[in-house]
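Q: Sequence in, structure out?
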Amino acid sequence: MTFQLPNMLTYSRIVAVPVVVLLMLVERPLGNWLALGVFVAAGITDILDGHLARAWGQQSSLGRILDPIADKLLVSAVLLMLVGVDTLQGLALLPAAIILCREILVSGLREFLADVRVGVPVSRLAKYKTGLQMTTIGFLIVGDAGPAFGPFSTTEIGVAGLWVAAVLTIVTGYDYLVAGFRHINSGESR
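A: Exactly. Output:
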């Protein structure tokens, strides 16, 4: 199972993380567009790996563990780089911090619940949140190298999307907490 295509796609997303980070340091605008290309390719692998695993009956424990880790590594690294290259500043740091904190919190909760053999499925809203978050981060990676959309720059659209993603992050994080605490409080985790 380790070297089946769905897992290989997940591995490629993990390998993409340092590549995107390095490309974000390349001189603008070339670095922005190259980083976006690798980021989009990594996002496509996120869609494909789970879909192929289910369609081909190749779901594995390794894939269930690595897929969310790969997602969190990619999102976290890029958000931190966006701060490092000054794309995110001031109040725009708040939604990025909310997203990062939620990812850590949900990861810890999922790990605890997995330890006691309780699964918390990904909700449809969480999937929409992830899609919006990835799209928004794409806009932010392009940043000032991108075209204007009417009176708004690519960065402004990215920051606005990041705020919406942060709100969805809070809502879906709350859903996970409620589901998790329901299991903890009911004594199923003992």
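The radius of gyration is 17 Å.
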